[in-house]
Amino acid sequence: MVGMTSDRPLRADAARNRALLLAAAEREFAARGLDASVADIAARAGIGKGTVFRHFPTKDDLLSEVMLDRIGALTAAGERLTGSGDPGAALLEFLTLAADRQQNADMSVLQEAHAVNERLTEARGRMFTLIETLVTRARESGAIRADITGTDVVLLMCAPGHVAGFAPPGSSPDLWRRYLAIIFDGLRPAGASPLPVDPPRMS
Amino acid sequence: MVGMTSDRPLRADAARNRALLLAAAEREFAARGLDASVADIAARAGIGKGTVFRHFPTKDDLLSEVMLDRIGALTAAGERLTGSGDPGAALLEFLTLAADRQQNADMSVLQEAHAVNERLTEARGRMFTLIETLVTRARESGAIRADITGTDVVLLMCAPGHVAGFAPPGSSPDLWRRYLAIIFDGLRPAGASPLPVDPPRMS
DNA sequence: CCCTAAGCGGACCGGCCGGTCAACTTACTT
DNA sequence: AAGTAAGTTGACCGGCCGGTCCGCTTAGGG
Prior knowledge:
Chains A, B: This is TetR family transcriptional regulator. 2 copies of one chain form a homodimer. By secondary structure, chain A is mostly helical. Chain A has 2 domains: about 10-55, Arc Repressor Mutant, subunit A; about 55-185, Tetracycline Repressor, domain 2 (Orthogonal Bundle), CATH 1.10.357.10. In chain A, about 60% of the residues lie in helices and about 0% in strands. Chain A is built from 10 helices and no strands. Chain A has helices spanning about 10-30, 40-45, 50-55, 60-80, 85-100, 110, 120-140, 150-155, 160-165, 175-185. In chain A, helix 1 packs across helix 2, helix 5 (about 85-100) packs antiparallel against helix 7 (about 120-140) and helix 5 (about 85-100) packs antiparallel against helix 10. The longest helix of chain A is centred in the middle third of the chain and has 23 residues, at about 60-80. The two termini of chain A are about 30 Å apart. In chain A, about 40% of the residues are buried. Chains A and B meet through helix 8, helix 9 and helix 10 of A and helix 8, helix 9 and helix 10 of B. The structure holds a DNA duplex.
């Protein structure tokens, strides 16, 4: 019996604290990346540090759970787009959703993938498959150039948020949209120059 | 008398150690970013940790010196390109040099600019001016679209290395060239879509 | 209402890291 | 060759962080 998670239902206060904790962790990781400390997360949630470790045996487990939520939501939204009549617009919409996450560049934490949590890698795989589908359709419809692969898009999807993160503090919180537009233009067939290196293969 | 650095010439062994230290720091920062520890840098250089702090009062000062070297070399190379007859190619060549730095994504450390070292901000400013020049000429020659500013390029210049850094371990060390080509295509006039947000203003 | 197990929390531990220091070594001067 | 200032070094310090633990609180069933 490996992997059984639900022994019994959570007590009411525990469930509330767990939700507070996850929300706080999401905000804290978004703001400070992997350097966010467990103590700070606990403080932001208004609970004790020990309680964090009661809910998640490890900081990495907490991070995994947060990422799982995000990836799940993004994948679900993306899957709803696969039926769109305009594959190019669908891919752009998906990338917009992916880069949005309140202009944080931390979704990239996903890609580092230190925690090899089983459920997380599975969710990752599901999202990669989705992206492959969106990219294939966009490619076949002529919306993006022929030599772009799903892996390319996986690697590029967090770049707008990351790039915009370097802007000086006063800048528009929507700046990532500017760089998404530029990068997506680079994926279009118009005026495409030949690409010098083969795309990587994802594990 | 503020800013006088050269009281007297360094002793021979001290000069040698300083060079070893800077080389080791460059490699270590490139490999592990800001998380590189002073002890590891010292070990890589084959010197004691105390010696590091004799040469640089602070880890940030050491980092600043390394960045200063890099920015200086890159700026010098870039200034040699401003005379080129093909402004578009000159900009692309500059971006290639910038992203190259052995495919490390850590040049971005520059942009975070925690250390407000006076010389470093000056070097930064000189490089920004250079980039502005290269971009203006490329824009006026029609090599890149009209709505791209120097600031855009400053923010985008490290993206290829950063993006390629997420690729699985076995990938080509030249993968950044692929993403530089894609992003640069996004800067070209052909098939450009209107940009949704104004560019930021650099301090 | 009361009992108990589930949940909570903060003091505590070991390890790491940036930075200091005083004892030791070594390159240059005369 | 000898003196000395410059340079080196590793033990050491304080602070932070992930993770543990045990005494306390409280939800919720009977």
